Give the backbone structure.
Amino acid sequence: MTINRQDKSTSISTQMDSLIPASKISNLTQGMFVGAVSDNFDERIEQKIFHCEIVVDNAAVAAETKAYEKIPEIVDFTDADGNDTMQTEIGLNYKQIKQDVLNIVKKELERIYNDPELRKLLNKEE
């Protein structure tokens, strides 16, 4: 509430940023988390603020990790001399895609130009 000589003003703030202080969040270790939940009128929750820890079974995680299969290499970019040709291949693919797009545009423009119904959609300069 603010009061001065002429009037009085009241404001209500619902900001709850200090509910879980940043210092608490910044000091959490791996697997720890904090939070707050809201409830419904007909389903009240007594404990709305929580501080928890995720318990990880390290042995199970290690066993699962050992069972992972290696991701196969799909494309090998080395030539017969052992040189890496990835940038060259990417450049060639880029140029091919660019040329394919130009060919599609040219073909469609010709199709539109040759169709009397569609020709009016083209600019006069084309």
Remarks:
- Residues 73-126 form one domain.
